[in-house]
Amino acid sequence: MYLIRRARAEDVGTLVKLARMVHFINLPPNKEMIGQKIAASRESFRKAAGTEKGEDRPKQFRPSDGVPGYSEGIADSGVFMFVLENTETGSVLGTSQLIARMGGPGNPNYAFKLERREFFAEDIKTGTSHVVARLHSDESGPTEIGGLILQPASRGAKLGQLMSFIRFHFIGMRRELFADRLLAEMMAPISDDGRSLFWEYVGQRFIPLSYTEADVQCGRSRKFIPALLPHEDIYLSLLPPAARDGVGEVHRETAPGAADAGETRVPVPGHGGPVRRGADAGRADRRGAAAQADLAA
Questions:
Q1: How do the pLDDT tens digits run along the chain, 297 residues long?
Q2: Which residues pair with 134 in a beta bridge?
Q3: Around 89, how many Cα atoms within 13 Å sit in the side-chain half-sphere?
Q4: What values do phi and psi take at 115, rounded to 5?
């Protein structure tokens, strides 16, 4: 039998092992950061339990209070971490999570927007088309779904689908805590040793940190992104083909979840993977209910 429950402090070791299986934005293989995230998650669940359905979202919903180094991106929101437990063995097989509000007014969420530029020269009757990436800030505070990892031995039995849809089901249960729009930051193709070609040819030219260092820093603060990255167009045609072709693509471990996350593809500063802007939260609620019925059948 399997049980989906809230993450607990004793799950840190297992979650670190799961995080090492794939390079994930929302679950870095860092014991301290995962411990901080679990602490924030437990506080989020505690405060959510004290909010009756139908009430307004509490103004001081701050799960990160007292959690040093935790991302300011969710300081005024909530993070909810779920784990899948095998009740016969007590082992944790997977995890997924929700961030109630990613950023907000005065605390934007950053991404690169892809746009196409068209040029034409009358004298030689020739035109060109270029895709550019331009830094974009979003203060709307959408809800973010992410952090879905399932150990390889447990895949193929709808358990991954269950861990994915539990997030939508929870949104439906506590609708007042979440935004009207959802997004998911999808991990780009990353080498087995943690290298990102997009980061090496773009990000690291402006931010003097390795990809891993920058990824960890994003979990604490993202102020360095607008401070150091250019705000002008970056022409992707100037990148080597290997780096250019990976922009907007997803990692092989992330691909199974990409279909659940919408259509718009926007590379995230750092690794070049897409941000998928998905369905509204009402549709997500219905999706979670449908999945629950399907998995119970």
A1: 899 999 999 999 999 998 887 766 677 788 988 998 999 999 999 988 875 444 444 444 444 444 444 455 454 569 999 999 999 999 999 999 999 988 888 888 888 888 999 999 999 999 999 999 999 888 888 999 988 889 888 877 789 889 999 999 999 999 999 999 998 877 666 666 667 788 888 889 999 998 778 877 876 788 899 999 999 999 999 999 988 877 766 655 554 444 444 444 454 555 455 555 555 555 555 554 444 434 333
A2: 113
A3: 6
A4: -135, 155
- pTM of this prediction exceeds 0.85: no
Tokens representing residue 130 in the block = 């270029």
Q: SS3 for 221?
A: coil
Task: Return left, alpha or beta for 41; rule: phi > 0 is left, psi -120 to 50 is alpha, else beta.
Answer: alpha
87-119 in b/e form (b: 16+ CB < 10 A) is eeeeebbbbbbbbbbbbbeebbbbbbebeeeee
Burial class (CB in 10 A: 0-12, 13-18, 19+), 134: middle
Nearest of 157, 153, 185, 141 to residue 281 by alpha carbon: 141
**252 by DSSP, 3-state: which?**
coil
* Ranges of H-type helices in the chain: 12-19, 31-49, 159-173, 197-198, 204-206, 211-218, 224-228, 241-245, 255-258, 281-296
Nearest to 100 by CA among 16, 40, 18, 161: 40
CA distance 22 to 20: 6
Maximum alpha-carbon separation in the chain: 75
> What does the domain layout of the chain look like in residue ranges?
2-296
